[in-house]
Amino acid sequence: MTRRAVALVVIILFIVAAFPMLRGGGSDSRASGVVAGRVHETFQPNDGKIYILVLGSDARHGNPQRARSDAIHIVGINAETMRGGILNFPRDSWVDIPGYGSAKINEAMERGGPQLLARTLEKLTGIRLDYWVLTGFEGFEGLIRRIGNVPITLKRDIYDPGGSGARLKAGRRRLPSWRALAYVRTRKVFKDGDIARTSNQARFLLQMLKLLNKQVERDPSAVFKWIAAGREFTDLNISADELFRLSVLATQVDVSRIGNVTVPVSIGSIGASSVVFISPRATALYSRFREKASLR
Amino acid sequence: MDGLHPLDAPLPSPTARKPKRKILDISIAASRRIWVPLVAVVMLATVGVAAYALTRREGSSNHQSGPQPSDSPVTLEQAPWRIQTLATGITSKPTKEEKDWLRNQRGPLTALVKELHSALFLDPSTRKRVVRRLFSASAARPFLSARPGITVAADSVRTLWRRGRIGIQAPGARRAAGTVTVVARIESDGETVRIGYRSDLFLEKKRGRWRVVAFETDQEPLPESEERNKASRDRNEKGRKNDNKKGASR
Predict the structure, then answer these.
(1) Inter-chain contact A28–B71, Cβ cutoff 8 Å?
(2) How far is A7 from chain B (nearest CA, A)?
(3) Closest residue by Cα to residue A69 from A137, A158, A148
(4) Calpha distance A122→A72 (Å, rounded)
């Protein structure tokens, strides 16, 4: 019995050692299958939808979380279809803030920080928000200084010396930080005031995304410059890993596949303050955005 | 955040590893324990000598001139790798520990790039295995279906250009991103094709191992230099003819 076992071990040893030799040795450089021409494939982290609440606070200095939000956008990306959308909310939108009753949407952040604003929007739209990103005046300028001037095409001259301080000529411009801030703050010179402003803010976000894609196409490690700027100048509740993956996902999305839509509203007043009422037509918009994370 | 989040690339858990199996469970009498290893050593030595002799014979056959048998790969001189690694996303001056840590990541990242592209271009039979090992599960699937590298039956493959540039995220050095470009000349059934390849790789370090978690790859046939020269000659000739026509009309 023992002898047989020993013999078996020796035979197995022999076979294991000699197998590559019996096969002919070396590696085979011939591959199976045929492919020709151009190959282009984009990585999708997983099938699914991601929603990010992007907020701009009106805090000049100090903690941007304890101020009102002048910019409120839900950015959705569908990692499966690689489409997306930016849903914009005018800051004067009259909504129900959980625990506080009806008020202007921008008051939610002052009362309970970005979390309360996120809860307000979740209740309004039925969309489960994954992340929020918040920046103030200083943070926004610092971010642009770090990532570089953002190119944008202005359809008309924007001149608002008494308000935002914008002095921008129509045409293709590369906006440095202070001009970019003036552009996204300008409201008074537009006929529909805050509604035009929120749409312009979303346009600027899309231009930033375009710039990221361009820089990453040239050098993929440029994504770390953006991450570093994001961590330095914005308030994020996103882990380093998630931020990296989110940034990589952002580099893969074609900007032309991201819709920019402002919720339909009507202008009105409550007491002495002017507000905007979100139209019941917005319900269909929320439902589409919730379903596809895309507005295009 | 219930369930599987879209950003969560599935990574194999350590528990997924197969436990070591005993092939044979045998007991050997104490008196036999001396000659058993001896026999095994002798057998292994025989196998080793035979393998060495066979390798020598194969090696010498590769240096023969003339057409090669189609199933034996031709050993060609390959372009040297030039891989540059650098720290990116620096917000403050890195400490000495951070610098050392960054420096230590260069070797594994460079090795990953070399291994991946050797599998894609020089040893495609290992492509699947290598990609599955070096990529996250969700990135491996689309990468393999994109079929970059050499996927045709080739008589010989020669890389003419192999470059890489990898940026390592400075704080923490757990993420990296870079571009790899390869130009290769493939001979197949008497035809020569030159291909240009570029991959943007996004990497993460998890459980002490670097893995590609996202990528963008692009590959296309390049015109051969002769074709390029011919095209350029044609263009010049056409230009000259147009100039002559203009001169004649004046």
Answers:
(1) yes
(2) 9
(3) A137
(4) 13
Contacts with B170 from chain A: Cβ below 8 Å: 224, 228
User: In this structure, are residues A268 and A275 in contact, taking their beta carbons and an 8 Å threshold?
Assistant: yes
Complex ipTM more than 0.85, yes or no: no
Q: In this structure, what are the phi and psi dihedrals at residue A196, rounded to the nearest 5 degrees? A: -70, -35
pLDDT recorded at residue A206: 96
Opening angle at CA A246, ends A242 and A247, nearest 5 = 120
Rounded to whole angstroms, the Cα distance separating B124 from B139 reads 18
Of B167, B217, B223, B227, nearest to B197 by C-alpha is B217
Q: What is the pLDDT of residue B53?
A: 53
pLDDT at residue number A290: 92
Residue A34 clears pLDDT 70, i.e. is over it: no
* Maximum distance among all Cα pairs of chain B, rounded to whole angstroms: 110
Does the beta-carbon distance from B44 to A241 stay under 8 Å? no
Look up residue A101 and give its two tokens.
């009753």
pLDDT of residue B33: 55
Rounded Cα distance, B127 and B144, in Å: 8
Tell me the pLDDT tens digit for each residue of B121-153. Answer: 999 889 999 999 999 998 999 999 999 988 777
A chain contacts of residue B6, beta-carbon cutoff 8 Å: 45-50, 79
Sequence-separated (6 or more) residues with CB below 8 Å from residue B162: B78, B79, B80, B81, B82, B117, B180, B181, B182
Nearest by CB to A10, from B40, B139, B218: name it.
B40
Q: From the CA of A265, how many Å to the nearest CA of chain B?
A: 31
Enumerate the residues of chain B whose CB falls inside 8 A of the CB of residue A222: 88, 167
Q: Which of A6, A221, A232 sits opposite B32 (nearest CB)?
A: A6
Give the Cα separation of B53 and A251 in Å (integer): 54
Q: A204-228 pLDDT, tens per residue? A: 999 999 999 999 999 999 999 999 8
Yes or no, beta carbons of B175 and A35 under 8 Å apart: no
Instruction: Tell me the pLDDT tens digit for each residue of A167-193.
Output: 999 999 999 999 999 999 999 898 888
Rounded Cα distance, B141 and A113, in Å: 41
Mean pLDDT, chain A, whole residue set: 82
Least confident interval from A31-35, A183-187, B2-6, B109-113: A31-35
With beta carbons less than 8 A apart as the criterion, state whether B23 and A258 touch: no
SS (H, E, C) A186-243: CCCCCCCHHHHHHHHHHHHHHHHHHHHHHHHHHCCCHHHHHHHHHHHHCEECCCHHHH
Residue A142 corresponds to which tokens in the numbers above?
Answer: 């610092």
B90 to chain A, closest Cα gap in Å: 7
pTM, to two decimals: 0.71
Give, in order, the Cα–Cα distances in Å from B43 to each of A6, A25, A194, B26, B32. Answer: 13, 19, 86, 20, 17
